[in-house]
Amino acid sequence: MPPELWALAIQQLSHDDQRSCLGVSRMFHELAAKSLFSTVHLFLGIWETCRGPYSFDDELEYSKLYRMRSTRSCEILLHIIASPHFAAFVKTLYIHANAEEGGIPYARVCLEKAICSLRNLRSLIWYDNMPAPTEDTVLCLAASITNLRSIALYNAPISNAICRAMSQISGLKRICLLNQSIFGGQISETPELSQLDFSAVLEANRDSLESLAIPAALVHQTPVHFLRDLTELQLCALDDIRDIDMLFRHSERLESLTLDSQISANFAVMSQYTQRLPHLTSLKIASDAPHMNEADIDALASFVASKVKLRRLDIAVPFMYWSQLERFLSTMSSLKSLDVLGIESIQFVCDIHELQKIAQYIPMTLIGLRMNVSTEINSNLAQAECDAWTQIFKQPTKLRFLHVHDEQTSYIPGIYDLIIEIPTLEIIGSRDEAFYSIERDDNGVAVIIPWSMTKSFSRTKEDFGDEDWAWIMRLHDKFG
């Protein structure tokens, strides 16, 4: 076969099989390396203590792991600097910055030198701020990389110096500047977001920008013509009705929208624009409002029902009665193209008979489902509740992905029971952020492969093997 066909075949292999290809021949080594090393993760410090409920009882264990990760990251950076051939493979760079106070000075120096070597870098994703990206880091990107298409900074402080440096980068298709996981997060007001010179960043990318993820406070610096050209928009800390009004009046080309609405009044505004956003295929909405009344639910349901092209829908609210959930679920019948559904309510008030009714509303055509619910049904009905949830999850006949983020008060079937009950499942996730890949043969389940904690934490589209699964889990990180 010609090398082009071998390259396509190798891209479909698992990482372990791709590593095996490195030793087959020079051609296989080159083709496998392009896939294996196109995405690089750098772990600066211990993400477990910064993000998760993980604690180290043994200080020696912590120190050993800290040194190992820091050393490994420095080795990767030095290899990028020393080997232009290897550096050319890297298209996406993830930086997980969870170092101790003072950071890792040597890694900082190596990082800025390595960035200058990543001539083919397309995407930079930086999580957290120990160390935080600096003006010099961004200027290195601007000076050295001509084909950068995406930059995302999560939980990193955004200053005017950073904005000035980012304005030196052009050709970006995606910009993401979020200070928190949007669901349940508070946005830092230091410096004042409204005082950032963000418009210069937008102007530098006016001919290329398609996707924008920002705090809602920066919407006022976003010219109308940018909103008109965007196909993907994510706003967090949306607490001003004027923001959402401007969004719906001018964002006609949007195909994907994510909103973190901190006041339920925004839903009333949304219901006034049911004729807007005609191209919307993906909608993710979260509300931090402590209680949504019937009018809020009706407004949200009315808007959702009008988006008949939706393929992906994800709704997260803190509290719902059965009557409210039923009103929302009733809109599913109008969404004939819906493939992926997420529902989250950490306090869902219902009885066993109402829970049993949910299955009839779940579309049979779903291929991906995420449920994060907490019920408080009497423990005497534990088996009945377990059976009701099983029926809900079995309703879709071709379900390939399921994530069950249940609370302790709910009686939901175990992971292994669900794997047996749903023969089409390929990936399943649970409340403790553990994921499992499932391989089947003619006799049923052949292998169940648990993901490592690090893979679950740093999960990417490539790990899931499907953009839909990455989308439904995006911004629903238990570690915040």
| Biggest sheet details | 16 strands, mixed
How far from one another are the termini? 47 Å
Could you tell me the strand content as a percent range? 15-25%
Please state the overall shape, judged from the principal axes of the Cα atoms.
globular
Percent helix range:
25-40%
Structural class: alpha/beta
* DSSP E strands, number: 16
Total helices: the number is: 21
Low-pLDDT stretches are: 180-191
Strand order of the largest sheet: 1-2-3-4-5-6-7-8-9-10-11-12-13-14-15-16
Radius of gyration: 23 Å
Mean pLDDT: 84
Protein model, in words:
Helix content is 38%, strand content 21%. It has 480 residues and is α/β, with parallel strands linked by helices. Among the domains are: 36 residues; 150 residues. Strand 11, helix 16 and strand 12 form a beta-alpha-beta unit. Helix 14 packs parallel to helix 15. About 2% of the residues have low confidence.
How are the secondary structure elements laid out?
Blueprint: H1 3-11, H2 15-21, H3 26-36, E1 39-45, H4 47-51, H5 59-82, H6 84-87, E2 92-98, H7 105-115, E3 123-130, H8 135-144, E4 150-154, H9 160-166, E5 174-178, H10 199-204, E6 211-215, H11 224-229, E7 232-238, H12 241-250, E8 256-261, H13 265-271, E9 282-287, H14 294-306, E10 312-321, H15 322-329, E11 340-349, H16 352-357, E12 368-373, H17 382-394, E13 401-404, H18 415-421, E14 427-429, E15 435-441, E16 444-450, H19 453-457, H20 461-464, H21 467-473
Parallel strand pairs: 1-2, 2-3, 3-4, 4-5, 5-6, 6-7, 7-8, 8-9, 9-10, 10-11, 11-12, 12-13, 13-14
Antiparallel strand pairs: 14-15, 15-16
Helix pairs in contact: 1-3, 2-3, 5-7, 7-8, 8-9, 12-13, 13-14, 14-15
